[in-house]
Design goal:
Oligomer: single chain
Shape: elongated
């Protein structure tokens, strides 16, 4: 019973099963110690924001098929240059795509993280 009293959260009225589980993980301090760091949460949040737009998902799906230049992406999406530039920027900042200059062209391709996401997405899209 001493162990339970040491990790008991006196300031919070908790259901017994929650209090017992919280005690087993070391109390509030133990719980917060198991959470991902703020840098991980920020990175995951940015990734989810990048994936939250259907146009960006379509860009990623196209790049999962093959690397492409902006002109092809623009024709498929049918959007203005400025809007496409914005969406490509969001995907680049999230680390899902990279653009490589080849002469006068910039060829966009998936990064390793983008490829991993595309495999999951494209696999689920067929279901």
């Amino acid at each position: 019973m001493t162990e339970k009293n040491e990790c008991r959260e006196d300031t919070l009225p908790l259901p017994p099963e929650v209090e017992e589980a919280l005690c087993r993980c070391g109390g509030i301090a133990g719980l917060t110690g198991r959470l991902p760091g703020d840098d991980v949460l920020e990175r995951e949040s940015a990734l989810h924001r990048a994936l939250a737009d259907p146009l960006r998902l379509k860009i990623l799906a196209m790049l999962a098929v093959q690397p492409l230049c902006v002109c092809v992406i623009k024709v498929v999406l049918g959007i203005a240059d400025s809007k496409l530039s914005y969406h490509l920027s969001v995907l680049k900042k999230a680390g899902l795509i990279i653009g490589e200059a080849q002469g006068n062209w910039i060829i966009y391709r998936l990064t390793t993280e983008g490829e991993a996401w595309a495999r999951r997405f494209m696999g689920n899209a067929g279901r």
